[in-house]
Amino acid sequence: MSARYQISGATSAAISASVETAVRTGALAPGDPLPAVRTLAGELGVSPATVARAYRELRQRGLVATAGRHGTRVRPRPPVAARRAALLPPPRPGARDLAGGHPDRRLLPPLGPHLAALAAEFGPPTGYAETAVRPDLAAAARDRFAADGVPADELTVTGGALDGIERLLAAHLRPGDAVAVEDPGWANLLDLIAALGLRTVGVPVDDDGPTVAGVRAALTAGVRALVVTSRAQNPTGAAVSADRAVALRTLLAGRADLLLIEDDHAAELARVPLHPLAGATPAWAFVRSVSKPYGPDLRLAVLAGDEATVARVAGRAQVGAGWVSTVLQRLVLSLWRDPATAELVRRAADGYDRRRDGLVAALAARGLAAHGRTGINVWVPVPDETVAVTGLRDAGWVVAPGSLYRIAAAPAVRITVSTLDDTDLPTLADALTRAPVKGGAPY
To answer: Who wins on pLDDT, 246 or 441?
Structure first.
């Protein structure tokens, strides 16, 4: 725990509020440890049960996580805005940041011409009664889903993939329910599940997606939802193969007690065939975002699913945010219809594939195992994440520690290839070879 901050309080509510204040002001940073329950109880003059209740409340709200002998720590992305986030120390000057997980801005299609064209077409302002999913956007989305074998008779739009997943989980589950997620998996999703008061059950993932044995074990454990990344899995680059999809559909068939969520966040950037699980269970949803191919500022995802599930998501939106901007919907439709934009996205996908495959091949040539079938990330197993991250940082490369993405999976580092050039690959591979990364488990 930071020496600058002393937790205070005589009740569990006051103690939890003190910790939240520390997180919000930056006195406690993501990853900082909290004192052991008995230690803090002694310092505050309260019973251990009082501190335990405070920690339990913080865990239920997703601010902290407890991991056995590692104690209780602030989550990597606690659901509270930190005023002093901008004061975090900057990366080492001159270091290349390969930790962000963002697409290459140089490869994103320009939005200006489409916005200008839309501005020239606008008629009278839109009113509340006219706000919904635009029929032309819905028709185009159905065509795109149909080309990939995803049934889309019922669909709606949400403010991005994570917004869609949050609405799905909130509509179907209650605090304390268990959600099966890929392990390693998307860090934002892990933090969202914690913030909703839900429990995660890790499902091992290999290059072909979630393992059948892992999903079977999660079902036996009583999970109420399963989240699967169709392609470009973050952080491993896995993609659900045809054989894996058949096996999972067979396993999940008819599970009326399970919500199946598929996340196809990479969409057109994933240059492998889609093998959807959609419809394997009575309650299901398929979420496809536009952020990776067209730009992170385009906060829109199309969500298809069974009639009841889509109705729940759309109905919840009506009593909250209301709708996704029809201006944004028109912009996305304009991008979808533009052949020049489609060509730019294709070139971006080719570029990401070349960089990712090139790095994996360069590491293999140097005797290092790495994973990355699709997407913009490469997952490199290591024996010790801290040592590997530090060694690479000293060599001028900033990578993400695998602990942000793991539940019980083996240590690794995640490398985002989107901003790499072809000439960077040998230099980075050499740096990984010199860093102590050999000997890690495959997943």
So the answer is: 246
